[in-house]
TrEMBL record:
This is NAD-dependent succinate-semialdehyde dehydrogenase. PANTHER family: SUCCINATE-SEMIALDEHYDE DEHYDROGENASE, MITOCHONDRIAL (PTHR43353). Belongs to the aldehyde dehydrogenase family. Residues 25-484 form the Aldehyde dehydrogenase domain.
Length: 495
C-alpha cells in the first residue's frame, strides 16, 4: 500500500523547523529560511530556519557552557540516554523511514533498513560507554606507576552528508555522547529533516540542554567557518566530498583541531574466475544499488575476470533492468530518484562520455522522463580502463564493467585511484582473499559480501578517502584524548 498525502502531512507537522540551541527551538537570528524539496517531485516539503554565523556561535556557546558538567556525568547515565534513544528511534521506525524516503528519495524498504542500521549505533555505543577502559601498570624499571585515563575531547562540530540522514547522525552523535562530548550538529541542507526529528528524540530520551545543538542552514561555510576558528571547538567530524574535507583540514590546522574525515570513494568490485557468479551478482546489486548508488561505499568499478565477464555482465544487467524507478513511498518502487537535478546531470554526463569513448550500455543509459530526478539503472560494458567514469565517484545507479586476466592485474587496477575507502572481492579461494586484501589499498574489504558496514566495526578509508574511524571501539576513541599520570612508586619507602 502506498503512503497517503495525509500521512505525509501529519509526519511533516511533527518535524521541528527551527534551530536547536541550548535545548530550545528558535528562529534564525536574521529570520532567514530555506526550503527542503522532495527529489521525486521537486516540490517543497518544509521550510526550515537557516542558521547564521551568529547562530552557529550561539550553539557553540551552549555546548561549551555545559561541557565540563557533561564530562563528569556517570558513564551509566550517558549509556541509559543512548539506550532510551535507541528504543525511541526503533519504536518510531515508521516515522523515520517515511521521512528519509520523502527528503532523500530512497525506497521505503531501504529506509527501514537505515533505521535499523542507524539505531544500532545508539545501542552499540550505549554498551561501549561503560567499557571504555584505561590502564594501570608498572613502568619496566619499576620506579613508577602508569595511569592512563581517557577524557572527552571537548565540544565537537559534526557535519553530516545528505545520503544517510539518520545513520550518519547517529554514527557521530552516539560516540560523542558516550565519550562525554558536547556537540554542534550541521546536517546537509538537502536532507536536514531527519536530523531535526532525531535531535528532538534525543532530547526526549533525556539528553540535557546544550549537549546537542543543531544548526541546519543553506550555507555550510557560514556555520563551519566561525566555529573552526573558535578556540573552544576541539574536534570536527566530517562526512562528505574529498575537496570539502581537504578545506576543513586546512582550517582545522590553524587551531590544531582533532579531525575525523570520511571522504570520497572509488570502490572496486573484483570478480575472479572462480567466483560464484550468482552470489557475485547478488552482492553487486547490494554494493551498487544501495541508496541508488549514492553512497561512498558504492561499488564504482566492476573489475571482472575476462573468462566470466560476459556471463557476469549479462546476469548483472538483467537484475538491474528488473528494477522499477519511482517515488520511494510507492509500494512497487525498487529504485528512487537521485537527490537533485545537478546530481542526475553529472551522472548522465559520465555515461555519455563513456559511451562516446566506446562503452556499450547493456541496459539503461539515460534519465527517466517526467518529474523528479530519476536515472535508469545502467550497466556499461567495454569500458576503457582510463575512462573518466572509472576515476571519480559516480554517485548514481550506473555500473561500468571492465576486465582483467590475472590476480596481479586486478590488484593494479583496484589500486589505480587516489581513493581508498571500500572494496569488494568475490572468489572461492580464501588464500586469494588474504593475498588480495593485504595488497589493495582500502580501509574496508568485503569478501563475498556486498554490504559490510556495521556499528561494531571500524569504518574509514586511506589515501584521499580520509582519516580516522567511525563505529566500533575505534569510533569511541576518536572522541577522547589520552591523559597519562605518572605516579611515584608507592612501595619506594619499603624498599
Amino acid at each position: 500500500m502506498s503512503i497517503t498525502a495525509q500521512r505525509e502531512a501529519e509526519l511533516l507537522a511533527k518535524v521541528p523547523t527551527g534551530l536547536l540551541i541550548n535545548g530550545e527551538w528558535r528562529d534564525a537570528s536574521d529570520g532567514g529560511t530555506f526550503d527542503v524539496l522532495d527529489p521525486a517531485t521537486g516540490e517543497k516539503l518544509l521550510t526550515l530556519a537557516s542558521a547564521t554565523s551568529e547562530d552557529a556561535l550561539a550553539a557553540l556557546d551552549a555546548a561549551d557552557a555545559v561541557q565540563a558538567e557533561w564530562a563528569l556525568t556517570a558513564p551509566r547515565e550517558r549509556a541509559e540516554i543512548l539506550r532510551r534513544a535507541f528504543d525511541l528511534v526503533t519504536e518510531r521506525k515508521d516515522d523515520f523511514a517515511l521521512l528519509m524516503s520523502l527528503e532523500m528519495g530512497k525506497p521505503l524498504a531501504e529506509a527501514y533498513g537505515e533505521v535499523t542500521y542507524g539505531a544500532e549505533f545508539l545501542r552499540w555505543f550505549s554498551e561501549e560507554t561503560v567499557r571504555h577502559y584505561g590502564r594501570y601498570v608498572t613502568t619496566p624499571e619499576g620506579k613508577n606507576k602508569v595511569l592512563v585515563h581517557h577524557k572527552p575531547v571537548g565540544p565537537c562540530l559534526l557535519i553530516t552528508p545528505w545520503n544517510f540522514p539518520l545513520a550518519m547522525a547517529t554514527r557521530k552523535v552516539g560516540p560523542a555522547v558516550a565519550a562525554g562530548c558536547t556537540m554542534v550538529l550541521k546536517p546537509a541542507k538537502l536532507t536536514p529533516l531527519t536530523s531535526q526529528l532525531f535531535a528532538a528524540t534525543m532530547m526526549e530520551a533525556g539528553l540535557p540542554a546544550g549537549v546537542l545543538n543543531v544548526v541546519s542552514g543553506a550555507s555550510a561555510s557560514k556555520i563551519s567557518g566561525p566555529l573552526m576558528q573558535d578556540d573552544r571547538l576541539r574536534k570536527v567530524s566530517f562526512t562528505g566530498s574529498t575537496p570539502v574535507g581537504k578545506q576543513l583540514m586546512k582550517d582545522a590546522a590553524d587551531k590544531v583541531l582533532r579531525t575525523s574525515m570520511e571522504l570520497g570513494g572509488n570502490a572496486p568490485f573484483i570478480v575472479f574466475e572462480d567466483a560464484d557468479l550468482d552470489a557475485a551478482v547478488e552482492g553487486a546489486m547490494a554494493a551498487k544499488m544501495r541508496n541508488m548508488g549514492e553512497a561512498c561505499t558504492a561499488a564504482n568499478r566492476f573489475l571482472v575476470h575476462a573468462d566470466v565477464a560476459e556471463e557476469f555482465t549479462a546476469k548483472f544487467a538483467a537484475a538491474m533492468k528488473a528494477l522499477k524507478p519511482g517515488r520511494g513511498t510507492e509500494a512497487d518502487t525498487t529504485v528512487g530518484p537521485l537527490v537533485e537535478e545537478k546530481a542526475r546531470d553529472e551522472v548522465h554526463a559520465l555515461v555519455e562520455a563513456a559511451v562516446s569513448a566506446g562503452a556499450t550500455a547493456i541496459t539503461g543509459g539515460a534519465p527517466v522522463e517526467g518529474p523528479g530526478y530519476f536515472y535508469q539503472p545502467t550497466v556499461l560494458a567495454n569500458v576503457a580502463n582510463d575512462a573518466k567514469i572509472l576515476t571519480q565517484e559516480i554517485f548514481g545507479p550506473v555500473a561500468p564493467v571492465t576486465t582483467f586476466t590475472s590476480e596481479e592485474e586486478a590488484i593494479k587496477l583496484a589500486n589505480s585511484t587516489e581513493y581508498g575507502l571500500a572494496s569488494y572481492i568475490y572468489s572461492q579461494d580464501f588464500n586469494r582473499m588474504f593475498r588480495v586484501s593485504e595488497q589493495i589499498e582500502f580501509g574496508l574489504v568485503g569478501f563475498n559480501a556486498g554490504v559490510i558496514s556495521n556499528a561494531a566495526a571500524p569504518f574509514g578509508g586511506v589515501k584521499q578517502s580520509g582519516l580516522g574511524r567511525e563505529g566500533g571501539a575505534e569510533g569511541l576513541a576518536e572522541y577522547t584524548t589520552v591523559q597519562y599520570i605518572g605516579i611515584a612508586d608507592p612501595y619506594a619507602a619499603k624498599k
